[in-house]
Design a protein that fits this description.
Elements lengths: L27 H8 L10 E2 H12 L3 H15 L1 E6 L8 E7 L31 H12 L5 E2 L1 H14 L6 H18 L11 E2 H10 L20 H16 L2
Antiparallel strand pairs: 1-3, 2-3, 4-5
Protein name: Cloroperoxidase
Length: 249
């Protein structure tokens, strides 16, 4: 398998499934980073910049978008840890902003997790994909006639999840859910001559959403990793697309 020239390569970071002792979030993007060891595999005490640069490099998101996503997560459930850093002359303890992935499962008006996840159940902590929700997603994708999910179809799946929960999402968490759907499609979609025809292929749905593992061809030349950086404007546009498709149903 050919790989990127970067220090981050798929072969040097093989997939290792999480255990019950590992900390995981209700997010396939973050859990995949941990499962491949791009951040601490145990999902604990992850520093701000290690997460920022992992998101940026692995998913080819722009630095501003990676910073925004990281900052919002840390702002909601991050904590300060004092890290020893001794010199020859003066021993120091420096503050370091850290996060545990499982804390991202916390609910509340100032937390980012919502109750309309595509493959995670509404519990704390939600550490692994719920296989009944994964099966529902894959069954839905198998009947689209496209071998995957287009952006309107992903919006339809999101709408189903919203209708299945007992309480309506508030505006903040609805915007977060829309953004997640749009960004997932932007990162994982196939890339044809027309983005309107692009889908997240069935195999990527099963691998990334279902196992929280990067697709096998992620680092291959011509593989499934986005070739061009995904920025703030595209992320916003995709979220607006999901919202438009959802309200049109």
């Amino acid at each position: 398998m050919s790989s990127s020239n970067s220090a981050f390569t798929f072969t040097s970071h093989p997939f290792v499934a999480s255990t019950a002792q590992d900390s995981r979030a209700p997010c396939p993007a973050l859990n995949s980073l941990a499962n491949h060891g791009y951040i601490h595999h145990n999902g604990c005490e992850i520093s701000f910049f290690s997460l920022l640069f992992a998101i940026h490099h692995i998913y080819n998101l722009s630095i501003p978008l990676s910073f925004l996503l990281t900052f919002v997560g840390f702002l909601s459930v991050g904590h300060i840890t004092w890290v020893s850093s001794s010199s020859h002359w003066i021993p120091l303890a420096l503050p370091s902003w850290r996060i545990n992935l499982s804390n991202l499962s916390q609910r509340g008006p100032h937390c980012i997790t919502h109750d309309a996840s595509l493959v995670h159940v509404n519990v704390y902590p939600s550490t692994t994909p719920d296989q009944s929700l994964v099966k529902h997603m894959l069954n839905f994708a198998s009947h689209t006639g496209r071998d995957g999910l287009s952006l309107p179809e992903l919006a339809s799946l999101h709408s189903m999840q919203c209708k299945a929960i007992h309480t309506r999402l508030d505006n903040l968490h609805e915007q977060i859910a829309l953004g997640e759907c749009g960004l997932a499609w932007a990162v994982m979609r196939s890339r044809t001559t027309s983005s309107e025809d692009d889908v997240i292929p069935y195999s990527r749905l099963a691998t990334w959403f279902g196992k929280e593992e990067l697709p096998e061809d992620w680092w291959d030349v011509g593989g499934s990793r986005p070739k061009e950086s995904i920025g703030l404007f595209e992320a916003r546009e995709r979220a607006e697309d999901v919202s438009r498709y959802t309200h049109a149903m």
